[in-house]
Amino acid sequence: MSIVKKRRYESLTKMDNLLSFMGVRRRKSSGETTKQKIINGNIFGGKSMASSGKKGFMIAFILCLAVAIFMPVAIGAQSFNFQDWEEGAGEWTIENGVWEVGCPESGPFDAYSGLQCAGTVIDGNYPSFANARIISPTFDIPSTSEKPFLGFWHWFSTDDAWGRVQVSINGGGWQNLTAYVYSGESNDWCYEWIDISAYGGQSARIAFWFGSNDDSSHAGWYIDDIALSLGKTGNISDHWTIDSSPYHVTGNIAIQNLIIDPGVIVLFHGNYEFAISGSGSLSAIGTETDSIVFDWASITIPRWGGIKIAGLNTSVMLDHCRVSHAGNRGIQITEALP
After folding, report:
1. Comparing C-alpha atoms, which of 165, 196, 194 is closest to residue 181?
2. pTM above 0.85, yes or no
3. What CA–CA distance (Å, rounded) separates 330 from 312?
4. What distances in angstroms separate CA 268 from CA 38, 132, 166, one per listed residue?
5. Cα angle value 297/221/161 (rounded, 5°)
6. C-alpha closest to that of 23 among 9, 33, 37, 13
């Protein structure tokens, strides 16, 4: 399951270069500001964790185990960009009007990233009796074993109108990817992810469908940074970057050598551990404005297994990281020298 059907989105104040939990704005250049991240309603910023350097391993972190009650989270993973609209609609097609691509002059007034996004009339309100889609070109969904996810950022303000994400498989008719619709007020850009592994290995098109009734005109639905992501599991030697964030963890992780850049979000889809042992090395160094977030992917799944550090030869550096919904452990350290 991707996210709970009903979700409460907190209204966030725009702050330069600040990430928070599900409505994050990632920087495309050093001069571009970021918004707070809102993931499943959780708001993340994060000061650094206490530091202690010991022989055999180093740990520099502010441990903010979210004992407080947060709303849940939901996001995408190691991904390749599918559409960010900066070059226009490209090979995407529009059915029955309403959808447009450009710089928004209504609704959110800014794209999630860059300058352009797709929206239901980008300089005004959507019309009554809308029944429109913006449709992707045909693409091949990665295999089911790779755990593919569809992720996107969206903003919406509707009244008696609805948005759905749909899929057409092998040229067939449209079917809804989820049972729920997007309606009401999001208040800010929010991240959404949908597990599409059931369609793995098949040829597909994705559509964002929008419909409205009479006298229901509001700003509508805006979409940005659509991407396909693959689940992460097993032995990991990699460099996780903000451009491929968020990362979806779909099994236990054993870190061999991993660098995580500031602003990255790591989402856990089950009770999985993020383990560093033996001679493993982890460097997850965030900043005051771009903290690194480790959290569950949805309120509907069990709490994840936490970060586990074991062994005298591990090298671990954590700074400005946020660890939430990790059961009773959060970060567990064993076999450490005094």
Report:
1. 165
2. no
3. 20
4. 16, 34, 25
5. 105
6. 37
